[in-house]
């Protein structure tokens, strides 16, 4: 089960979408960096790189989740999807 913000209930929907886009574009930029043929990394190093990306992205997701909690506390509507 996961919780998802319902944009119809929010004045902050736009801000939320911008955050999501920021997270996604950062991840994509890093993936492109990885695929860059000039970056000839040994396997062990590229694995570390992947782990670093995942760590960074999950940090961003946690930050976004904290934003969700703050918004929920502010008394906005919240939709639960299971």
TrEMBL record:
Pfam families: DUF874
Name under which the protein is recorded: DUF874 family protein
Organism: Helicobacter pylori
Top-level taxonomy: Bacteria, Pseudomonadati, Campylobacterota, Epsilonproteobacteria, Campylobacterales
């Amino acid at each position: 089960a996961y919780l998802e913000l319902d944009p119809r209930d929010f004045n902050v929907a736009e801000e939320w979408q911008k955050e999501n886009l920021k997270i996604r574009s950062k991840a994509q930029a890093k993936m492109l960096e990885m695929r860059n043929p000039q970056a000839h990394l040994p396997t062990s190093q590229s694995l570390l790189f992947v782990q670093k990306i995942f760590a960074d992205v999950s940090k961003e997701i946690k930050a976004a989740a904290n934003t969700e909690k703050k918004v929920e506390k502010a008394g906005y509507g919240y939709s639960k999807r299971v």
